[in-house]
Amino acid sequence: MADTLWGKGLALDAVIHRFTVGNDPVVDLSLAPHDALGSAAHARMLAHVGLLPADDAKALVSALKALHDEARAGQFHIRPEQEDGHTALEAALVERVGEPGKRIHLARSRNDQVQLAMRLFLREEVLALGARTVELAGTFLDFAQTHASVALPGYTHLRRAMPSTFGLWGMAFAEGLLEELEALRGVWARLDRCPLGAAAGFGVPLPIDREYTAKLLGFSRVQRSPIDVQNGRGRHEQAVLGWACSVAGTLEKWLWDVQLYSMDEFGFLALPDAYTTGSSIMPQKKNPDVVELARGRCRELRGIAHQVEAVAGGLPSSYHRDFQLLKSPTLAGLTSMKDLLDVLARLVPALQVKAEAAARASDDSLYAAHHAYALVAKGLPFRDAYRQVGRELADGTFHPDRGALTATHLGGAGNLGLPQAREELAAARAWLDDTHRAVASATARVWAL
Fold it and tell me: Where is the Fumarate lyase N-terminal domain (predicted)?
């Protein structure tokens, strides 16, 4: 096992080795650019405190930048016998710069090394998810504005309830995503602490400067407790996946509505032909497979989040090899979520509203509560008005004045609150842009020689 970081020249059963390595040589390819960046910051810190010659640090940073770029381009490889990306990265450094490559692991463990790579990866993913969520929220706002006054029956218990509009319907999902964008800042704050320096969970007996590394990488603070760094394995992955599941919960309701409203029996919406698939036996079919699969992705994502929670839970404190099993589902879940957001950002503006069908379904019965309110305006107590309308509905004499009342309060059908929502969306976009620039600036500082 000479190719492993922990190898001592002793033989290891091949089956055991394959089992313990798992799929890390594949999964770690996604973390390799972040591992290279974290390693470069670590090398600069070692030089900063005098534990590494300045020339060695420069050689390491230069080689790590090349490896980072190769990893981004898909040109970095991890051999099965190397176990993981950390081993492959160190081997590549030794091959390219010689003796300095053997010094890179001073004052760190694979434990805090992978934690840092994962934290940097999650930061990048959060910004990418946020940008996609902003784009999708914007498409819902555009939909709501375009169809602000187009009638749509409002349903409770899947039964017609009160008059609504496509604008009110579309605005609901924009509003939900705006709330999620606010929550994303809290997720970011949880990630905004540097774990490097915790080593195997108990620090190192060397004069390292954890604050220097944190600042260099653009973290606002250090994750102080080295034991908590290890206890946090899975916690931050759950936080990001939990946020994604919450977003998916909002989108799943929209997907269900689209599935219902685009049925022939409703006919309120239609998907363009290019967004449908056919049947192998029924020539007339235009199936909304994209809607159904997107809806399934929402439920699949909850399953992935539960998997991460199950693996991370039920363990004592400090490091355990179980944590290795967190990487694969986390990466899969975040990839799936990005795909979902990308697809829906195309689907929302492509929906075709069938205003006439929705108007036909908006019959007088929807205006029962409105009519009761109109009677209240004439002095009748609400409970008496409620009963009178009930009698009129029962005996067939119910003929409401549909234009008598309109909800003009903020958020009502007559006042969707679009300007306020667009301001909130602009603020979310600005925060994401500012945060992205700050991270990019920190990354440039790490690579600057």
Answer: 34-303
Residue the block writes with tokens 């609504």:
164
Integer-rounded Cα radius of gyration of the chain:
28
Give residue 254's identity as a one-letter amino acid code.
W
**Residue ranges with strand state E in 221-308:** 269-270
State the CB neighbour count (10 A cutoff) for residue 378.
7
What DSSP designation does 67 have? H
pLDDT bracket for residue 4 (50, 70, 90) = low
CATH architecture assignment, domain 111-361: Up-down Bundle (1.20)
Domain parsing of the chain, residue ranges: 14-106, 111-361, 364-395
The neighbour count for residue 200, using CB atoms within 10 Å, is: 16
* Homologous superfamily (CATH) for 14-106: Fumarase/aspartase (N-terminal domain) (1.10.275.10)
pLDDT tens sequence across 381-412: 999 999 999 999 999 999 999 988 888 999 99
**129: CB partners within 8 A, 6+ apart:** 184, 243, 244, 247, 334, 337, 338, 341
Q: Which residue is catalytic, options 220, 279, 317, 441?
A: 279
The C-alpha atoms of residue 296 and residue 207 are separated, in whole angstroms, by: 51
* C-beta atoms surrounding 129 within 10 Å: 23
Q: In the prediction, which pLDDT does 7 show?
A: 56
Rounded CA separation 262/257 (Å): 8
**Phi/psi of residue 445, each to 5°?**
-65, -40
What is the pLDDT at residue 404? Answer: 85
C-alpha to C-alpha distance for 422 and 259, rounded to whole angstroms: 27
Q: Is residue 336 flagged as an active site residue?
A: no
pLDDT of residue 8: 55
pLDDT at position 252 over 60: yes
Kindly report the pTM of this predicted structure.
0.94
Write out pLDDT tens, residues 43-54. 999 999 999 999
